Task: inverse folding
């Protein structure tokens, strides 16, 4: 091929092409500005509309509006986040999850996304994933009140852990939470209740005491402290808190019942410090009589338990004549023997003869605290 | 290759071959010659083609979006009246434009680019690009079930062709310009340069050559850069995390591949059956066909599946993110086949790539969802299935197996999906080929009365090699250091008149019995052959070389030696013109 004419005009051709490219580029840039402005405006319009509907709880319309907004700005983080939120409102979790996972990929540190993903995973029973997202959310960044959001998330995590019976993990989260609570009586009381649910009564009592330190008239604090002290077997302390709780809120039936039991325990416990011998002996005689009554009613109620109970009944019958105030005064060592029998009767009848009376319950609790349990 | 013919037609040995075929006429022009050779200029021009195609595709995307906003509205919920009226009326306008102003905009851009390459010396009228731009934007924007990739490909090819005409390139270069532009257009439309390059090589050009590959890559990359400059670098879909959890999932992907293959056959058979019927209808009906297609698509939308309208990328995105139940996904796949069929056979300009991806994604997600519901241990994420499904339909319907794999990889940006994609695509491709031997592009070409080479058939074609025609060496080999008398003696045992001479240290030549007799008669019997004759080297061949290669030599030399690649002195056989022709004759009869 003869290249000569071709070579001669080549630099010029390249120059012309370059100029043309620049001109077209500028023209398309102008067009692109118009396009982007229009897309942005339309997206924003639908987003604003969707946000209003989302706040009003009109999730279905909000979903459509956010979808329309996304047509104009498919990668917009806020649009996707709000769409996910609206989908969650409609309980379309799998769709919401897909959006959230996508958002998570773009911003793994977003607290809201992590918490929502954790909720979905918790709901789906994906325990490990849920825990991971909850922990991410706790240490994530939050747009507004960061501390509050983190606390709320940790509380939610604890609820989840308690629900799946991961008490040890729940306890450690609770301890971490309690350390950062500050002087918020309501939250301290909430943490106390969670400690109770985690069966960590010692920390529960501390939390409720903190509540009362912040607000000495806090009813939840009083009831909670009373309940925790009761579970710990510290009936005198429990009685004090519960009395205050019932006085502050006479409608608190649970505290009232507990108070009654605590008072009974204190009344029926012959091993308390500070009792005179006469008082102690009288308590033992009363407890022995109560146990005998329980045994008798149990024999009448339940024929099947007769195998074990005749021996208890015989023992009780044999001791009956000696367990009197004068008998106990003469033989103080009989106090232990008599109360041992009482505790045995209460335990065995408790297992086979249905709900015990309040006095029997009190005696069982005395037995429990006597055993150190 | 062992030898290259030079400008004079002589054969040069390997060590003599030079890439510089044309010597400069004047030393002062050497610099210009080096810098502005046509080949290099072609590469530079490829970048410009990419830039212009990228800009055109960006404008095309704007046009589609504006058509959608102004015709269908900017929300996601549309009124039934609009859903029916807009595609119908747009269909009427498109029909008028196509019939009266842009008749060449009908049909597949891929085939028109191929026709430019093989028939029209690279010529694609710029009017076709303008027509495709306007009519396809209107069609897709108004909700016809077609995609922007094929028109983008054709716009790119037409721009490249127009530029080439201005440059007055050689015929060969002109032919290659259209595919270069096509790659640029497709790359910008897909935001996937590798897939675009592969598709153009696989479906348009049909062969890998270094010269064209460089240009195609440059144009594709530059167009994608331009497109991303204006529209951002995000892919067409938001790809969720995809991974293959267990090898047992491959069973599920195989099922997807089988179903995808069957769906591809249904889709392509329907097009092959309906398109000629629609074209055969009276001419006046061609004004109504796009409108009727639009009306029916509008009805499908009103009846509850507006997702089938337009290219549907946002719907694919939603399907990947679990918006639809598997039953709904299955229905959408079926309805999209119908909608696309209506749009395409009615002659509405637009592409098949996006609908193919849509159908594949819906089918994939449906299969994934169903398997997840019934066999939860087999399938994990429907999103992964949607992604694999796109590749499956691409392989089964468009019959571009390599592109289908790379397209999924490029779109997903995740290489862990490669095994499922290959497995599923292979099933789809094999089933589709078995049930529908002719690929859709070839069907469309033949319906249009053209006879373009089928890339698929070319790929499958058996190739004759030198070893298929060569004969084992029967005559004695002669060393050039032997005397004339000795060689004459040896030639008495030879079956032919021509003897091969082995030269020292390497190379081959030949001598006839008559020459030997003449030399002996002249009293030169005691002289060595090398001292008597000006020896011309014979080119040699290797057994694995295509038989076509032998044709270049056998008319100039009575026998050509076939030597081992490991040892050039070792003669594996000989080949003559008769051997070559005989082999071709046998092949043709076979």
Result:
């Amino acid at each position: 091929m003869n290249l000569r004419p071709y070579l001669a005009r080549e630099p010029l051709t390249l120059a012309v092409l370059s100029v043309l490219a620049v001109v077209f580029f500028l023209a398309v840039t102008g067009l692109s500005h118009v396009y982007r402005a229009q897309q942005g405006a339309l997206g924003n319009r639908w987003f604003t509309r969707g946000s209003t509907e989302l706040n009003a709880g009109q999730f279905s319309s909000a979903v459509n509006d956010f979808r329309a907004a996304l047509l104009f700005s498919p990668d917009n983080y806020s649009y996707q986040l709000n769409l996910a939120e609206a989908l969650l409102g409609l309980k379309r979790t799998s769709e919401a999850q897909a959006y959230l996972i996508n958002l998570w990929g773009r911003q793994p540190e977003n607290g809201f996304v992590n918490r929502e993903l954790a909720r979905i995973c918790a709901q789906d029973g994906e325990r490990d994933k849920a825990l991971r997202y909850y922990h991410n959310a706790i240490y994530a960044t939050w747009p507004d009140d960061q501390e509050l959001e983190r606390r709320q998330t940790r509380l939610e995590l604890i609820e989840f852990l308690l629900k799946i019976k991961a008490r040890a993990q729940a306890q450690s989260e609770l301890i971490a939470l309690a350390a950062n609570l500050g002087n918020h009586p309501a939250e301290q009381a909430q943490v106390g209740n969670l400690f109770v649910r985690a069966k960590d009564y010692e920390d529960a009592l501390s939390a409720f005491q903190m509540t009362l330190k912040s607000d000495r008239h806090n009813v939840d604090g009083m009831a909670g402290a009373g309940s925790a002290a009761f579970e710990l077997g510290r009936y005198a302390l429990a009685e004090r808190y519960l009395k205050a709780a019932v006085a502050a809120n006479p409608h608190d039936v649970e505290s009232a019942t507990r108070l009654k039991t605590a008072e009974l325990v204190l009344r029926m416990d012959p091993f308390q410090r500070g009792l005179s011998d006469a008082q102690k002996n009288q308590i033992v005689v009363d407890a022995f009589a109560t146990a005998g009554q329980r045994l008798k009613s149990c024999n009448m109620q339940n024929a099947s338990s007769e195998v074990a109970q005749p021996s208890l009944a015989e023992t009780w019958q044999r001791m009956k004549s000696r367990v009197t105030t004068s008998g106990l005064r003469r033989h103080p060592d009989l106090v232990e023997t008599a109360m041992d029998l009482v505790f045995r009767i209460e335990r065995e009848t408790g297992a086979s003869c249905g709900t015990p009376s309040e006095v029997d319950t009190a005696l069982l609790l005395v037995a429990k605290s006597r055993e150190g349990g | 290759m062992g030898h290259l013919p030079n400008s004079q037609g002589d054969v040069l040995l390997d060590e003599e071959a030079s890439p510089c075929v044309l010597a400069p006429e004047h030393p002062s022009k050497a610099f210009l010659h080096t810098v502005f050779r046509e080949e290099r200029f072609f590469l530079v021009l490829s970048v410009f083609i990419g830039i212009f195609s990228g800009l055109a595709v960006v404008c095309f995307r704007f046009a589609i979006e504006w058509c959608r906003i102004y015709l269908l509205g900017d929300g996601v919920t549309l009124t039934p009246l609009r859903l029916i009226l807009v595609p119908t009326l747009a269909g009427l306008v498109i029909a008028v434009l196509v019939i009266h102003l842009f008749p060449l905009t009908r049909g597949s851009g891929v085939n028109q680019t191929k026709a430019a390459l093989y028939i029209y010396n690279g010529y694609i009228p710029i009017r076709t690009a303008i027509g495709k731009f306007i009519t396809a934007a209107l069609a897709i924007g108004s909700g016809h079930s077609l995609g922007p990739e094929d028109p983008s490909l054709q716009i790119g090819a037409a721009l490249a062709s127009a530029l080439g005409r201005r440059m007055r390139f050689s015929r060969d270069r002109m032919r290659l310009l259209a595919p270069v532009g096509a790659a640029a257009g497709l790359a910008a439309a897909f935001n996937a340069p590798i897939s675009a390059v592969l598709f153009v090589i696989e479906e348009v050009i049909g062969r890998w050559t270094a010269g064209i590959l460089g240009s195609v890559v440059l144009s594709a990359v530059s167009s994608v850069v331009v497109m991303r400059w204006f529209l951002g670098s995000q892919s067409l879909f938001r790809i969720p995390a995809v991974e293959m959890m267990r090898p047992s999932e491959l069973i599920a992907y195989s099922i997807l591949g089988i179903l995808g293959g069957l769906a591809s056959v249904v889709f392509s058979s329907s097009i092959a059956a309906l398109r000629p019927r629609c074209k055969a209808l009276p001419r006046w009906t061609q004004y109504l066909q796009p409108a009727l297609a639009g009306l029916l698509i509008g009805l499908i939308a009103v009846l509850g599946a507006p997702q089938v309208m337009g290219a549907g990328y946002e719907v694919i995105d939603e399907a990947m993110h679990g918006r639809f139940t598997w039953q709904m996904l299955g229905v959408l796949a079926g309805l999209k086949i119908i909608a696309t069929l209506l749009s395409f056979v009615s002659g509405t300009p637009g592409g098949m790539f996006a609908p193919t991806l849509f159908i594949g994604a819906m089918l994939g997600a449906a299969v994934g969802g169903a398997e997840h519901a019934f066999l939860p241990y087999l399938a994990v994420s429907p999103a992964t299935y949607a992604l694999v499904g796109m590749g499956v339909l691409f392989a089964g319907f468009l019959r571009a197996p390599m592109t289908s794999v790379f397209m999924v990889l490029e779109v997903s940006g995740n290489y862990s999906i490669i095994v499922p994609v290959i497995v599923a695509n292979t099933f789809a491709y094999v089933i589709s080929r078995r049930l529908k031997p002719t690929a859709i592009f070839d069907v469309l070409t033949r319906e249009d009365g053209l006879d373009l080479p089928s890339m698929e058939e070319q790929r499958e074609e058996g190739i004759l090699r030198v070893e298929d025609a060569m004969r084992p060496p029967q005559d004695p080999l002669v060393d050039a250091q032997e005397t004339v008398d000795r060689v004459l003696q040896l030639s008495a045992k030879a079956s032919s008149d021509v003897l091969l001479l082995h030269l020292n240290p390497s190379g081959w030549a030949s001598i006839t019995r008559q020459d030997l007799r003449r030399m002996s008669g002249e009293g030169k019997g005691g002289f060595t052959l090398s001292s008597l004759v000006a020896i011309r080297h014979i080119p040699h061949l290797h057994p694995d070389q295509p038989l076509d290669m032998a044709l270049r030599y056998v008319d100039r030399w009575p026998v050509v030696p076939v030597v081992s690649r490991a040892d050039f002195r070792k003669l594996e056989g000989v080949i003559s013109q008769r051997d070559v022709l005989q082999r071709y004759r046998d092949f043709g009869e076979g």
In short: The beta strands of chain B are 4-5, 11-12, 478-479, 498-502, 508-512, 560-563, 571-575.
